[in-house]
Amino acid sequence: xxxxxxxxxxxxxxxxxxxxxxxxxxxxxxxxxxxxxxxxxxxxxxxxxxxxxxxxxxxxxxxxxxxxxxxxxxxxxxxxxxxxxxxxxx
Amino acid sequence: xxxxxxxxxxxxxxxxxxxxxxxxxxxxxxxxxxxxxxxxxxxxxxxxxxxxxxxxxxxxxxxxxxxxxxxxxxxxxxxxxxxxxxxxxxxxxxxxxxxxxxxxxxxxxxxxxxxxxxxxxxxxxxxxxxxxxxxxxxxxxxxxxxxxxxxxxxxxxxxxxxxxxxxxxxxxxxxxxxxxxxxxxxxxxxxxxxxxxxxxxxxxxxxxxxxxxxxxxxxxxxxxxxxxxxxxxxxxxxxxxxxxxxxxxxxxxxxxxxxxxxxxxxxxxxxxxxxxxxxxxxxxxxxxxxxxxxxxxxxxxxxxxxxxxxxxxxxxxxxxxxxxxxxxxxxxxxxxxxxxxxxxxxxxxxxxxxxxxxxxxxxxxxxxxxxxxxxxxxxxxxxxxxxx
Lengths: 90, 388
Ligand SMILES: Cc1cc2nc3c(=O)[nH]c(=O)nc-3n(C[C@H](O)[C@H](O)[C@H](O)COP(=O)(O)OP(=O)(O)OC[C@H]3O[C@@H](n4cnc5c(N)ncnc54)[C@H](O)[C@@H]3O)c2cc1C
Ligand code: FES
What we know:
The complex is a heterodimer. Chain A is built from four helices and three strands. Chain A is mainly α. By secondary structure, chain B is an alpha/beta fold. Chain B folds into two domains: about 5-45 and about 145-225 and about 320-375, FAD/NAD(P)-binding domain (3-Layer(bba) Sandwich); about 85-140 and about 225-315, D-Amino Acid Oxidase, subunit A, domain 2 (D-Amino Acid Oxidase, Chain A, domain 2, 2-Layer Sandwich). Strand 3 (about 80) of chain A pairs antiparallel with strand 18 of chain B, so a sheet runs across the interface.
């Protein structure tokens, strides 16, 4: 994988950025998520989380199945506020 | 040099570990999950000196002075800025109350002022000014990034020799007379023990369980875990809702723009008693409730998308003031922050570290006000004004 490859489109995170963080000793997926904001964009990490897990597995020697998926947050798809509050009155 | 153990890897435990290391102490820090996994990573990022009692105002004025210099001290970006807090009044009585609070805050050097709605609109361009009569505005209040702040403290603490252990749960304490002499902890299924000279309970919502391990009653410091939730919108242009905006009479509902990605964080005083100490499930009634207020404060939010909702704990005491002080000879507590632990951390951590090692501190922290034994004596403080 090339160093400048973007793996999180929502938050512009590169492979290099993830690798640098892991090299600095941060290997907990929940911590990586919050420091780089992977998985915190509107898509909730659908594309980036699996890639980060594979990098993490490769660098730490853990099996991918042993790395827990970070919790995704409701709503699963972005919802417009007006749908939730109803009506057009202010 | 003595060995000091800290239970709880939230902002309070981590910042205190750093402050103790700065004083040359040997520190071991235990976090049962990952660092920040308790309340800290769920907070709304707000930092304010606009309280309604002397103790909290003076403590927070000092804390904000530390926040200003923290980035330089820790050598890492933490995203602190003076983005202000804007409280909005909906009645004449509230305007009077604001005036009294402002007078008290001013007397301790906090520069809050009463502003009209034209000025409020300049500060928060999309604000719906119609329901409001006046604002209490302190431009020195602010916000910071909880993730970056915790890691900045943690990285520095580790550099200074703190033995920081995550995924390591404290399971028992060994007590001799009025002293804690050892801490038992479990990590990777293995239980080990370490001898300690002093211990700090910084476990916030879980603090009563730690007190129980020390042979004290859970009720001595009665902390209840209330589920407090937040909802976040997609990013809006920066500068739209820079300060925290809150009409307290609307169920303490508030809005603040995330300093990093520009999404609007919406909170409200709608609370649920947590079913257990792992009950982080967000609720639909909160989502609808909070948005009902949010669109009245900033009508444009109606057209934004909600991208995320989450829950955390307001570790509440009966008077909504934290318990900070000594419980036994060498056993201390700083917990029960009732929604203010992030903003208070730089001041409380320094005060606690100095208190534990020297018996006193130069931080203007009123030990009597926060005394952990006040509940047992039935001596509650005036309720701290709650809001992120
Ligand atoms: C939705 C929400 C919004 C908020 N908004 C704001 C805000 O705007 N401004 C503000 O100042 N505050 C805010 N707060 C409050 C703030 O988040 C907390 O007061 C603060 O994070 C408390 O930090 P702490 O270190 O005391 O506790 P925590 O971060 O909860 O840390 C305690 C840690 O102890 C660990 N632990 C517990 N038991 C054990 C054990 N046996 N062994 C090892 N570790 C253990 C836990 O895993 C946890 O990580 C908010 C809170 C919530 C929930
Ligand atoms: S690609 Fe990472 S959160 Fe969307």
